Fold:
Amino acid sequence: MDLRRFGQRRREGHGRLEQGMVRVEHDLHPLCPPFSALPGIPYWGTPSRVAQPERLAKVREKVMRHAVRAALLPSGLMFESERPAHRFRRRLRRRLAKLKDLLAGDGRLVQERGSEHGDPMLIVTILREAGAVGVNTHIAQAADLLSQQGERVRIVSLDSWLPLIGPLLLAPCLAIRRTHFTPGIPLDRYLTSLSVELSIRRQLKLEKPTVIYAQDPRSAHAALRARGSLPIPVVMVVHYNESEAEELVNLHAIRRGGRADRAIRSFEAALIPRLDGLVLVSDFMRQHLYDVIPEAKAVSSAVIPNFLSDTRPSPADVVTRDCISVGYLVKRKNHGYLLHVLAAAKRQGHRYSLTLVGDGPEREPLQRLAAELGIADQVHFLGERFDIDELLRQHRVYVHSALMENCPFALLEGFRAGLPVVAAPFGGIPEVVGGDGSGRFWDLADPIGGARILSDLLENESELARAARRARARFESTYDADVVGHQLAQFLESARTPLSRFPG
Structure:
């Protein structure tokens, strides 16, 4: 069979160009699966924003063709070519050489923003570069801020997988996640970290960044390994709540106190003292980190809250509903409490509407609970949406019921839209809400009391308007990128350490 005809058919069947973004999917063989994510779980894929989609489409096609061949040839599954084997290998080597030139030129798979002069700043994450979680929001906001200040910013993510090697590394991870094979979680973590490490090594061969800004412990570890003795500072931002192990425990992916739990916490304790800088988005997390890892006190650090670019409210927005909450529907977010609050308020003579934006495994149980409580017609499940700002401005108050948070972007988005926030005083939430009247606190063990707090706010129009003004003012003074973003830029600038600090 002619490999050229085969490749053409594969491209016609599985390649597509959508809205200027390149996406190539293949399902030829388990070693080269479709690169799509499980619902709510960020995974690998292709860059979501590229400067030259047409050229990158050709690069992606070359990558996938060679990845398929490399995966199938060693196992004996590749069909025979009509040409002699030595001619095929020669052609393959020539194509790989051309592909290497493309990846080193304008068609790089590593995303770049900012000016074309000076050494870049590298942002590294173990997630996909495009996604709906808070880490993705922080990456986008930080990259835009730094590029506006003249920095060249490059983003290395799970999307930046290497040709040939990338699919082979990430295919087992996809199988582990789709089958929910808990014993495979350590292998999943190792392979994804290795894939990012190889992408960083490739980037370091092209040019040396001034700073590597890691978004999680695994990407920070990959950056330290890739850096070696090079004088490149590695700074990590702490997004997670208490520990990455704690988040996996809350998702019931691992057992508290089990082998995986202990291994992840030990990994973090060994990694953090080796870093050149720490960015903590809440003072709560700083205190917690120092308590569990005292050696972290020796690392240069700064408490810099998350931030957002400002978007002015439109006077055309009409308020039509009462309460809104945005987030992944999982048990840790505790959305069931909000339903009990609405039911209690209904018994007290107040009928309020609730909009839940997001999807997840708890959606059907929450829908059943709403029906059991007799408030199904008051609760709207919208699923995943991309018009969050517009939705927020159609509501009167933002409600939050999570059991633990660090510095949630959802509350910042509520403040930006001018919505007062009602939440529980856990983790870093008291720092976000503050005591200036921009929000209220409720007890997650007392939905009846929560209903009273909610009705006291919603039934008093003057107090609601006052709280809304204070919420907007709090965003402008504390979480606007133009106000607080420069703190991150200054800290990363201070991390650019002279050569004498590094070995070798």
Notes: The radius of gyration is 25 Å.
